[in-house]
Amino acid sequence: MSNTHHFLHTDLYQINMAKAYYDEGVHRRRAVFDLYFRSMPFDNGYAIFVGLERVLQYLQEWQLTDEDVAYLKSLNYDDDFLNVLKSLRFSGDVYSMLEGEACFNNEPLIRVEGPLIEVQLVETALLNFVNYQTLIATKASRIKQVTTDNQQLMEFGTRRAHEMDAAQWGARASVIAGFNGTSNVEAAKRFDLVPVGTHAHSFVQAYNDEYEAFKAYARSHKECVFLVDTFHTLKSGVPTAIKVANELKDSINFNGIRLDSGDIAYLSKESRKLLDEAGYTDTKIIVSNDLDEYTIQDLMHQGAKVDSWGIGTKLITGYDDPALGAVYKLTAIENEEGQLEDRIKLSNNAIKVSTPGRKDVYRIINNVTGKSEGDYITLADEEPEEEQMIHLFHPVHTFKQKFIHDFTARPLLQLVMESGQRRYAKESIEAIQERVNHSLEELWDEYKRPSNPEEYPVDLSEACWENKNQIIKNVGKYVKQVVNKK
Ligand SMILES: Nc1ncnc2c1ncn2[C@@H]1O[C@H](COP(=O)(O)OP(=O)(O)OP(=O)(O)O)[C@@H](O)[C@H]1O
Ligand SMILES: O=P(O)(O)OC[C@H]1O[C@H](OP(=O)(O)OP(=O)(O)O)[C@H](O)[C@@H]1O
Ligand SMILES: O=C(O)c1cccnc1
């Protein structure tokens, strides 16, 4: 499933802007874009950044095919322009957070710099990848937060995912954020995840008899988990599973039973008793059926006896907040003299005003506590690592402020692609999972609770804040001039 043929996976308006830039001869001017989201998904206190691997694969393979050219020609684009598009390869620089990093609203996750025509045309695909994968990783992380370390999490969502790509990259995002495995075999193969699974009701229905079905399964498989709720969980399903295990003794490993309907709290407790009484104290109870972090939390409060959770629809679709809403905004562009000039997008809505300039983001770690004090957005030429003290203040309510002395400023944006060449090697899932763990350890618990978390500080440096305000003033002057000319 190569990305090679996906150059046209972009919005028509990107190509139309490219055409105008080309006709005006400005298409190779250097431009800088920030990719970020504006509000926290699921009202969570943090998000988990995922999507970079696909972004890099996409940019490396970004190229028009002959069929694409023919198609664009049929839309009446001229040959000169098509020749330019055809010769395009991504030659820009990409600065990005690494996958698995905790991230927050209104801070650049990725900064893309390069010839205007290139960095504009890739907007749609980059947003597509990061919006979905970061959303699903964040949902998965919320689910992980409400379970205990000895419980397993299995991603079961493929059948309900928004098509194949979403199922596979969503499985990867879920495992990055703490799931143990996925039922999707291709995702497991492709991304080196653990494939996991039990069997379906149809298997029992096919035999129309639980005893026959479980026996048949056990003849073919040493590792057995039996689905016990097809007819009557406590009266037939669990007792039959125990009967089969008793008969087959060591020729199988009776690893578990799965419950997929009914009152999970009650059924899991009663099933646990039946299994324990029969001596199967190590046999696990696996539960599925429309689960999410809320139902899981509820079930745990009720004392449900669950070892493993299988979660599909509500995870893989980001069910209760299905769009991250990340945007890609121009922050600077080369002028006629070859100098980068900062740019802004104003809005009546303060949250929608973009922050101009080439910027970096640092996580300010308090050296005494080891915990993060907040994220600090600077202009790219600032060096907060070298400073003795950092002034963190809320960018809107500026009276909310603190001074940090003994700190480490950890840069979050890394140069992952330089002049179109990948500068950062593909990482293993384990390495990315470790980054998730480390990144979450740096956060106080107040940011990690699933309901009403504290708002994490994402602040601008004084220079960045002043630059933004100056540019807002300049736009004010510009608007006045336009009005006066009328
Ligand atoms: N004790 C419980 N407390 C809270 N929620 C529960 C409890 N037991 C089950 N649930 C959840 O309640 C919902 C029950 O859904 P529903 O009524 O559709 O399932 P069902 O009728 O038992 O099974 P089926 O999916 O086969 O129709 C599921 O989301 C399930 O996870
Ligand atoms: O409930 P989810 O979180 O999406 O998890 C995946 C579901 O998929 C399977 O059901 P299936 O598709 O066979 O149908 P069902 O809804 O009737 O159980 C499985 O038994 C789970 O219930
Ligand atoms: O393996 C399972 O039990 C499974 C896989 C996908 C969906 N529902 C259940």
Would you mind describing this structure in some detail?
- Its EC number is 6.3.4.21.
- Pfam families: NAPRTase, NAPRTase_C, NAPRTase_N.
- The structure is a single chain.
- The protein is α/β, with parallel strands linked by helices and 486 residues long.
- The protein has 2 domains: 282 residues, nicotinate phosphoribosyltransferase, CATH 3.20.140; 176 residues, Alpha-Beta Barrel (TIM Barrel).
- Helices cover 39% and strands 20% of the residues.
- It contains 16 helices and 21 strands.
- The strands form 5 sheets. It has a 7-stranded antiparallel beta sheet.
- Helix 2 packs antiparallel against helix 6.
- The mean pLDDT is 97.
- Nicotinic acid binds next to loops.
Largest sheet: 7 strands, antiparallel
CATH superfamily heading of the largest domain: nicotinate phosphoribosyltransferase
User: How many beta-strand runs?
Assistant: 21
CATH classification class of the largest domain: Alpha Beta
* Arithmetic mean pLDDT: 97
Hey, roughly how much beta strand do the residues contain? 15-25%
Proper CATH architecture of the largest domain: Alpha-Beta Barrel
Q: What is the CA-CA span between the terminal residues? A: 55 Å
The Cα radius of gyration reads 27 Å
What's the number of structural domains?
A: 2
CATH topology of the largest domain: nicotinate phosphoribosyltransferase
Number of helices: 16
Major sheet: arrangement of strands: 13-12-1-5-3-19-20
Low-confidence runs: none
Label the structural class.
Answer: alpha/beta
GO molecular function: nicotinamide phosphoribosyltransferase activity; nicotinate phosphoribosyltransferase activity
Pfam family, one: NAPRTase_N
Function: Catalyzes the first step in the biosynthesis of NAD from nicotinic acid, the ATP-dependent synthesis of beta-nicotinate D-ribonucleotide from nicotinate and 5-phospho-D-ribose 1-phosphate.
EC number: 6.3.4.21
